[in-house]
Design goal:
The chain has 257 residues and is an alpha+beta fold. The chain has helices at 16-32, 69-80, 144-162, 167-176, 181-197, 213-217; strands at 2-9, 43-46, 49-56, 87-93, 108-110, 121-123, 201-205, 230-235, 239-243, 248-250. It folds into two domains: 2-93, Alpha-Beta Plaits (2-Layer Sandwich); 108-256, no CATH class. The protein has a six-stranded mixed β-sheet, covered by helices on one side. A four-stranded antiparallel β-sheet has the order 2-3-1-4, with no helix packed on it. The longest helix has 19 residues, at 144-162.
Length: 257
């Protein structure tokens, strides 16, 4: 992934509130389309120029051809706020993040965690993140619904990792239960992505708990009861189970690894 600096220069008198609204609308549109990563963006003003540093999946993530209808509308809205078209200056490669996938995958999956800022869509061949703007819009012109699902998944993951309150059990239920609202919405998004891309797309089902390792190794798919979904070797060194019928991958309980 890459770090870039985007500048917004005033071409006439404006107000900070007008400029702030126009810039934030564009940043949010880019975020909801997967073109920029993260949730908070510090916008600085100096000598009539607004500047913000952003994390991108690829060097060309902000190219106009990737803009959603909402991003294009937000770019046009800059003029009303007396701001010129944004100028971009690439800073360089971010050494603390993952490299985006560049090859068409044979299969893909929805996988994220509270420590990941990248796309939740991953290549099944390499586990590298796939930039969301490189696939057709999932709903209403962009990937807002998918970004919202990812945010909720990560929030539940952070709660259960903290293990500091009774909320941990509710969070784990959302992550690991095929009857939870989080699973249902994520699994439906998975199906939508598979339909749009024509690439087999799976959902990662978090697993923790269980009585013992042997029972874990013999557990069946919790959605269809498939008893043959255990893999001879963990896929990508992570997923011990894969149900092709339900499009689910899962890990051996973290309690027994």
């Amino acid at each position: 992934m890459y770090v870039t600096e985007v500048s917004f220069e005033c071409f006439a008198d404006t107000t900070i509130s007008e400029a702030e609204r126009a810039i934030n609308q564009l940043l949010e549109a880019w975020r909801q389309n997967g073109q920029i990563l993260g949730r908070e963006f510090a916008v600085a003003l100096k000598d009539g120029v607004f500047k913000v540093r952003l994390l991108l999946p690829e060097q060309q993530s902000l190219a106009n051809r990737f803009n959603s209808p909402w991003a294009k509308q937000a770019v046009d809205g800059l003029k009303a706020a007396k701001l010129l078209h944004p100028r971009e200056k690439l800073i360089g490669l971010d050494i603390n993040s993952e490299t985006s996938n560049s090859e068409p995958p044979s299969w893909q999956l929805l996988y994220t965690s509270y420590v990941h800022m990248c796309s939740p869509l991953r290549s099944g061949d390499t586990l590298q993140p796939i930039p969301l703007y490189r696939i057709p819009a999932t709903f209403n012109g962009d990937h807002k619904q998918l970004i919202r699902w990812q945010t909720e998944w990560q929030a539940c993951d952070e709660i259960q990792m903290a293990s500091a309150s009774a909320a941990e059990f509710a969070a784990v239920n959302e992550l690991a239960n095929v009857n939870s609202d989080l699973f249902r919405r994520g699994w439906d998004l998975r199906g939508r992505i598979e339909y749009l891309t024509k690439i087999p797309t799976y959902y990662y089902l978090y697993r923790i708990g269980g009585h013992d390792k042997q029972e874990e190794l013999s557990r069946c798919c919790p959605r269809c009861g498939n008893t043959h979904w255990r893999q001879s070797e963990p896929l990508l060194d992570l997923f011990h189970f894969k149900c092709d019928q339900c499009r689910i991958v899962s890990n051996l309980s973290w309690d027994f690894q």
